[in-house]
Each structure stands twice: as structure tokens, then as C-alpha cells.
């Protein structure tokens, strides 16, 4: 079945460092791909999305490109801030298109 | 502004109790979802509903049931709570704009502890 694999955390960075969180997927066809973020004590928020191959989603300085050839959707940010500390989830729609399948989440901790 | 609310942020119940978790959305969304979130496991779908009185099992429906009597409200029911149901429960809703492209909006979560 469909699945999402993302890198294990926690990821610990200093402010202004470059961030990459890897995400690969297994799915039939070409599902829409998402990154969600969960700040401490809050629910999940959509960070960015891409609906077809080679699409680049971007928001708040974060970017991710839908790579069909490598079945990947890696999240990147050029310069992280303390306020980016959160849990990040990669997700895709299941084959039926009815619900999201999430990765296990990657905790990011940014220190000043 | 889009809003999904859950009845409690924290809940403590005893083994064997019947537990109701309530979720309300004010966006007139057709679809509503219940997930549980556990460390190292991410989010797992329990049940979802695409219309009033309609429900579909997700990946881990055992031990749970749901109710959707009104479009804006989706309830998760633990018929007889057990300690392995201690978890964070997240509700979400979405408007189906086109197959595969809709965004899900999440509530803040209910942290349930079963003792």
C-alpha cells in the first residue's frame, strides 16, 4: 500500500543554518504531496503542497519539489529561525484519494 | 478564519469508561477525520466521514466508533476505554475542491489519558 518515509529526528540546528528533511514515498500513480507543521501545543497546519511532478511548493521560506524519478519530496529552508522549532510531517493522499497518509514526523529544534 | 474546535484539550478517564470526543468545524466542510498521534508512529487514521450519517473505517478503527448527525460535528467514541488508547487525538476537516488536492484543517488535539 501507499506509504511515506521521512528521516528520523530529532534534528538540532543553530539559527541561520540550512535545513533539509528528507521524505520519500511509495504510491500508485502520482499522488498530491504535502508538508504539515505542528508547533508545540497546537494542531497540524499545512505548510506547503505540490500536486504534480516537478511542482515546487513554497511557504514561509520553506520549499519542496515533487520529484517523480526519485519519489521524493524533501523539505528545505535556507536559514532556519528559532520559531521554526516544530514537528514536520510529510504526507500524501491514499490511492482512493480519500485520506492522507502521514510519515512519522521529524522534530526540528533550532537554538539561538 | 477557518476553525476546527475539539471539546477538550486534556482528558483523563478510567479503564472501561465510555468516552466521547467532540469535534466541530465552522467551514461547511463535507469531509471530517479522526486521527491518533503517537510518538514514533506519526498520525494514523481512525475513521472519516464524507457526509452526514456516512462513515468509513480508517487504518485503526478497532475499539472506536464515530457519529456524524450534523454536518459540522463529528464525534469519536471509545465504547470501553483501555490504557492502550492513551494518545493524542486530532480531528480534521476538508472541503473537496478536486480529488486529491484538498487541504485538511486540524483542530488543536485532545490528549487523552486512560488510567
Which descriptors apply to this entry?
heterodimer; A: 112 residues; mainly beta; four-stranded antiparallel β-sheet; 50% strand; globular; B: 115 residues; 11 strands; 0% helix; 53% strand
Question: Helix- and strand-based class of chain B?
Answer: mainly beta
Mean pLDDT of chain A: 92
What oligomerization state is this entry in? heterodimer
What general outline of chain A do the C-alpha atoms trace? globular
Biggest chain pair interface? A-B, 22 and 25 residues
- Assign an overall shape of chain B: globular
Give the biggest beta sheet of chain B: 7 strands, mixed
Helix content of chain B: under 10%
In the predicted model, the low-confidence regions of chain A spanning at least 5 consecutive residues are: none
Distance between the termini of chain A: 41 Å
Strand coverage percent of chain B: over 45%
- Mean pLDDT metric of chain B: 91
Chain-wise SSE layout:
The complex is a heterodimer of chains A (112) and B (115).
Chain A: E1 3-6, E2 11-14, E3 19-21, E4 23-26, E5 33-38, E6 44-50, E7 56-59, E8 62-65, E9 75-77, E10 86-93, E11 100-102, E12 106-111
Parallel strand pairs in A: 2-12
Antiparallel strand pairs in A: 1-4, 3-9, 5-6, 5-10, 7-8, 8-9, 10-11, 10-12
Chain B: E1 4-6, E2 10-13, E3 19-25, E4 31-38, E5 42-49, E6 56-57, E7 64-70, E8 73-78, E9 87-94, E10 104-106, E11 110-114
Parallel strand pairs in B: 2-11
Antiparallel strand pairs in B: 1-3, 3-8, 4-5, 4-9, 5-6, 7-8, 9-10, 9-11
3D architecture notes:
The complex is a heterodimer of chains A (112) and B (115). Chain A is an all-beta fold and 112 residues long. In chain A, strands 2, 5, 6, 10, 11 and 12 form a 6-stranded mixed sheet that branches. In chain A, strands 3-9-8-7 form a 4-stranded antiparallel sheet, with no helix packed on it. With 115 residues, chain B is mostly beta strands. Chain B is built from no helices and 11 strands. Chains A and B meet through strand 6 and strand 11 of A and strand 5 and strand 10 of B.
